[in-house]
Automatic annotation (TrEMBL), chain A:
Gene3D superfamilies: Nitrile hydratase alpha /Thiocyanate hydrolase gamma. GO terms for molecular function: catalytic activity; transition metal ion binding. Keywords: Metal-binding. InterPro entries: CN_Hdrase_a/SCN_Hdrase_g_sf, CN_Hdrtase_a/SCN_Hdrlase_g. The keyword Metal-binding applies. This is Nitrile hydratase. Residues 9-194 form the Nitrile hydratase alpha/Thiocyanate hydrolase gamma domain. The lineage of its organism: Bacteria, Bacillati, Actinomycetota, Actinomycetes, Pseudonocardiales. The keyword Manganese does not apply. Pfam families: NHase_alpha. It comes from Lentzea albida. Coiled coil: none annotated.
UniProtKB/TrEMBL annotation, chain B:
InterPro entries: CN_hydtase_beta-like_N, CN_hydtase_beta_C, Elect_transpt_acc-like_dom_sf. Residues 1-83 form the Nitrile hydratase beta subunit-like N-terminal domain. This is Nitrile hydratase beta subunit. Pfam families: NHase_beta_N. It comes from the Bacteria.
From TrEMBL, chain C:
Residues 3-86 form the Nitrile hydratase beta subunit domain. Pfam families: NHase_beta_C. Residues 1-22 have a biased composition (Basic and acidic residues). It comes from Lentzea albida. It comes from the Bacteria. SUPFAM superfamilies: Electron transport accessory proteins. Residues 1-25 are annotated as: Disordered. This is Nitrile hydratase beta subunit. InterPro entries: CN_hydtase_beta_dom_C, Elect_transpt_acc-like_dom_sf.
């Protein structure tokens, strides 16, 4: 962990390296600002919430999403582009029998464009080491206790694909609008460490 | 020996700690490291797998996530003779 | 590019502990799983990290927790390049 002193030191080192790279023509400060602005503007878990709410209310969309998420996302004006390279997205659906949970045991692979920057716990060795071998215990640390009969499917995003969980629609939400449904979804629900 | 990053199934990292209302970045420099890395990969100074390899070779669980990234960037730039 | 394995095939992962970058995690080495789908063609990460681009078929392979860890009733699915796999 870093204290404030370390952070001012590393902040200065980052600035120094930026200056060197700018001098060499490898870094354009305007490009850097653009990357940061685009990231802040477009990369948010609200995108994932919208996808889930549409899948809950439009069965055709849900089917297309599960079949080929990259093809279905543009229906909502979304894509898996915008990063370093377009990524394949697999949406995995929770059912009465199966609960899905996502991890990247080797680093921190995550669908940034749909979920925004990942939380520190997702990148932590504590989560990455344990959720593959003891998912039930890890989910309980998040306050999610699953019935013994629920089968847990862990997806290790260890290569080029990214994963997003499609949670189950909560009971008693038939009257809610799509926007209201989107408001029920949480980032952890899209990773699989919450029910919704 | 598996590399430091390869932690799946290992014991000893303690409980998962969730930070409530966590901001996207804890410090401004972290966002700059993220953007710098994207720019350098975009300019083909190195590729994403070379970057991951550099993180794996130089990382420490004692350092923060973006500290590890910054160390890897500096290592790659030095190895490639850029700086 | 022809696919060596099809959905439903049983495959064994490599036991090699390479001294370079790889995307076959330690916990998934030397185990038998089932191909559950194709995951496209991508440059083999091990070589890409050395600046060599060699696209190769990637498979979604599912393992039981019992096979991987000797306990547990869940399953784990990974994306594995053809180089990491051999016939059971």
């Amino acid at each position: 962990m870093s204290d404030d002193h370390d952070d001012s030191a590393i902040a200065a080192q980052v600035r120094d390296l930026e200056a060197v790279l700018e001098e060499k023509g490898l870094l354009d400060p305007r490009e850097l600002d653009q990357v940061l602005e685009a990231f802040a503007a477009k990369s948010s878990p609200a995108n994932g919430f919208r996808v889930v709410a549409r899948a809950w209310t439009d069965d055709g969309f849900r089917t297309r999403l599960l079949d080929d998420a990259n093809e279905a996302l543009p229906e909502l004006g979304l894509s898996m582009g915008g990063g370093l390279q377009p990524q394949v997205l697999h949406v995995v659906e929770n059912t009465a029998d199966v609960h899905n949970v996502v991890v990247c045991t080797l680093c921190s692979c995550y669908p940034l464009s749909l979920l925004g920057p990942s939380p520190t716990w997702y990148k932590s060795p504590a989560y990455r080491s344990k959720v593959v071998s003891h998912p039930r215990e890890v989910l309980e640390q998040f306050g999610l206790t699953l019935p013994e009969s629920t089968r847990i499917e862990v997806w290790d995003a260890n290569a080029e694909s990214r994963y997003m969980v499609l949670p189950r629609r909560p009971d008693g939400t038939q009257e809610l609008t799509e926007a209201e449904l989107a408001g029920l979804v949480t980032r952890n629900g899209l990773i699989g460490t919450a029910a919704v | 020996m598996p590399r430091t990053n390869d932690v799946g199934g290992l014991d000893g990292f303690g409980p998962v700690v969730e930070e409530l209302d966590e901001p996207p970045f804890h410090h401004d420099w972290e966002a700059h490291v993220m953007a710098m890395n994207r720019a350098l990969i975009g300019q083909k100074v190195y590729n994403l797998d070379e970057f991951r390899d550099a993180v794996e070779r130089t990382m420490s669980h004692e350092s923060s996530y973006y500290e590890n990234w910054f160390r890897a960037i500096r290592t790659l730039l030095k190895e490639k003779g850029v700086v | 590019m022809s696919e060596r394995y099809r959905t439903g095939d049983r495959v064994r992962t490599s036991t090699v502990d390479p001294d370079h970058h790889t995307r076959l995690p330690h916990y998934a080495r030397g185990h038998v799983g089932t191909v559950v789908g194709s995951d496209g063609v991508h440059p083999l990460a091990d070589l890409s990290a050395q600046g060599i681009q060699q696209p190769q078929q990637v498979y979604l392979v599912r393992f039981t927790a019992r096979e991987l860890f000797g306990h547990g009733d869940h399953s784990v699915t990974l994306s594995l390049w053809e180089d990491y796999l051999s016939d059971e």
